[in-house]
Amino acid sequence: MVLVFVETPRGLLKKTAFEAVTYAKKTADLLGTSCVALTLGSVSNAGELGRYGASRVLNIPGDALDQLDGQVFSAAISEAVGKLEASVVILSHTSTGKTIAGRLAVRLNAGLISGASALPTVAGSALHIKKGVFSGKAVAEYEIKSAIKVISLMGNAVKPEVSADAVAVEPLSVTLTKSLIRVKATKTQEGVVPLSEAEIVVSAGRGMKDPSNWGIIEDLAATLGATTACSRPVADSDWRPHHEHVGQTGIAIRPNLYIAVGISGAIQHLAGVNSSKVIVVINKDPEAPFFKAADYGVVADLFDVVPRLNDAIKKFKAAN
Amino acid sequence: MKLLVCISQTPDTTAKISFNPEGTDFNAAGVQFIMNPYDEWYALVRACELRETLGGTVVALHVGTVANETTIRKALAIGADEAVRINRDPKSAADTAKQIATYAAAENFDIIFFGKETIDYNGSEVGAMVAEYLQLPYVSFASKLSLNGSTATMERDIEGGVEELEVDLPFVVSAAKGMAEQRIPNMRGIMTARTKPLTEIQPVDFEAPSTLVQFTLPPAKVGVKLIQPDDMDELVRLLHEEAKVI
Ligand SMILES: Cc1cc2nc3c(=O)[nH]c(=O)nc-3n(C[C@H](O)[C@H](O)[C@H](O)COP(=O)(O)OP(=O)(O)OC[C@H]3O[C@@H](n4cnc5c(N)ncnc54)[C@H](O)[C@@H]3O)c2cc1C
User: Fold this and answer.
1) How, if at all, do strands A138-144 and A126-133 pair?
2) Out of B138, B232, B243, whose CB is closest to A308?
3) List of chain B residues whose C-beta atoms are within 8 Å of the C-beta of residue A189
4) Left, alpha or beta for A32 (phi > 0: left; psi -120 to 50: alpha)?
């Protein structure tokens, strides 16, 4: 059986949840077994996970599970794995998943592949799994031989697919350990899709000249339903908040569409974005290195072309 | 205060990545290796700052062969008091974690630092694994860390936000941007690094539950399609019809 741990930040199901269940369902199909989803703490609408292929949706109740602690979570998940006799555990390669996956692998004596970019292939009792390595410059294929296998799934690696109906949520009881971490305050920005989950990202660099010029970037992002990002010098000079910084020392993302405006395309920047499916570069310098990594390019002054692109998209959206 | 900082090395981002013909081994010839930036800029520097204000020792630990001693000396030059190298070319995060946990289990460190991830494999696995072996709390992606007696106050990055929390010593932490500012080793640091203790210890046996099958290089981009600046309708058409992303 394939068990998928579905993370539910602040009790909500995010896109990563549907991706993880879709991936788990397809893995279960490959293995000729079923897919069961597991949620921890308070969650709304967990039964929805049935639509993405979970034949059962389980919930371990407990107020203590509303705050993230990898130690408590991995103990609870391992116990569920034992009770349900799961042979594969799937989770998301997010900040939550990363605090849990390593612990879980040690507890379960399991091989772990983190950041899987594609479905596994079955090789006897082993699984082969691919992930991007060296900042997207290569792909590595691994084999997991252990009896229990843990896989964390890279965001945007699979498209959520509805394949069945919602199911009723069943409670599961396990022994909960006490958390040694005391959470004092949580600050979140709701309403914006976090960069790690965004399908479309509009990113801008030093070519913007001044933070007061960002209106055209925000307008373009709003039209596209995109999340905004920026290059490192832009974040370093506090033109934009640090969480927008993408690249080798910021966050690595792989949206379907990355639009880079006034960014030169230094290798350290590309390291975080070159796994994007489609890259559009807007830069007035035809020699900017970013054009070599781009699918589509516009050599022009951004102040002129970004508003025009925004208008063209509005026109397209109105017509479709 | 006894602080452990686990450091790894990675190919420099600008390095050309290539493999042996079978794709089973990374071709290190001519590749410049650097200390993993998260380990160096944030974990190591913050540990040194804590030692400077509270006293104690910072031990830099590396699992790797003698070829990597330049990276270890750099950690000493930045400010670690002593270094330990576990003599093994680790083939997986699980192997590295097992080696580190075996060493640390006997040492009673107050804080074990990691960088949030390496920039070559981005697995973010080792810190969580070591924490589990040692049954210690693990705070991942911490962007702030201060100590008040035996209690640490931290901020950690979570999905779509930041969380402020407290945890008592001992614990394991992975350092993200914000925890400290990069330090360039000065001449004195580089000189004293040569005489600081660097101990080699032998690894324990470990059979990794997952192994590399093969590396492959992704197909090269076919080349950029340039669109006339006065024809943004054409770009929109391509994004919709050809790339199918809007
Ligand atoms: C160890 C290390 C780690 C790093 N990590 C990162 C990282 O994580 N992320 C990151 O982004 N960088 C990182 N950097 C920095 C990186 O090397 C580059 O310096 C940085 O990405 C450049 O940012 P930029 O493209 O915004 O600015 P610039 O390089 O200054 O480029 C600005 C671009 O805007 C164009 N432009 C200017 N005016 C206009 C206009 N009116 N219309 C159109 N185009 C215009 C210019 O032609 C130019 O190409 C790192 C560097 C090092 C050494």
Assistant:
1) antiparallel
2) B232
3) 160-161
4) left
Q: Are strands B161-168 and A181-188 parallel, antiparallel or unpaired?
A: antiparallel
Give the Cα separation of B156 and B5 in Å (integer). 18
Count the domains in chain B. 1
pLDDT digits (tens, 9 = 90+) for A168-194: 999 999 999 999 999 999 998 777 788
- Cβ A271–B13 below 8 Å, yes or no? yes
Angstroms from B239 CA to nearest CA on chain A = 9
Q: What are the residue boundaries of the structural domains of chain A, listed by start?
A: 2-171, 200-319
Nearest to B227 among A107, A257, A298 (CB): A298
Residue B235 in any domain: the answer is no
Could you list the residue range(s) of the whole structural domain that residue B91 is in?
2-213
Query: B-contacting residues of A 144-163, CB under 8 Å?
Result: 144-146
A208 pocket-lining for ligand 1 (C-beta < 6 Å):
no
B63 within domain boundaries = yes
Q: Give A219's pLDDT tier (boundaries 50, 70, 90).
A: very high
Angle at A206 between CA B142 and CA B118, to 5 degrees: 30
Q: What is the CATH number of the domain that holds B165?
A: 3.40.50.620
pLDDT at B19 over 90: yes
Under 8 Å between Cβ of B56 and B2? yes
Q: Which CATH architecture has domain A200-319?
A: 3-Layer(aba) Sandwich (3.40)
Q: What is the pTM (predicted TM-score) of this model?
A: 0.92
The CATH number given to A2-171 is: 3.40.50.620
Q: Which two tokens stand for residue A264?
A: 């030169």
Could you identify the atom of ligand 1 that is nearest to the CA of residue A285?
47
* B79 part of a folded domain: yes
Q: Helices (H) and strands (E) in chain B — how many of each?
A: 7, 13
Cα distance between residue B241 and residue B244, in whole Å: 5
